[in-house]
Amino acid sequence: MSYFRITLLRSAIGLPRRSTDVLKALGLKKRMGTVFHPVSQSVAGQIMKVKELVEVREVDRSMTQQEVWLERKPDPGYYVEKTCAQERGEMGRQ
Question: Which domain of life is it from (predicted)?
Answer without folding.
Answer: Eukaryota
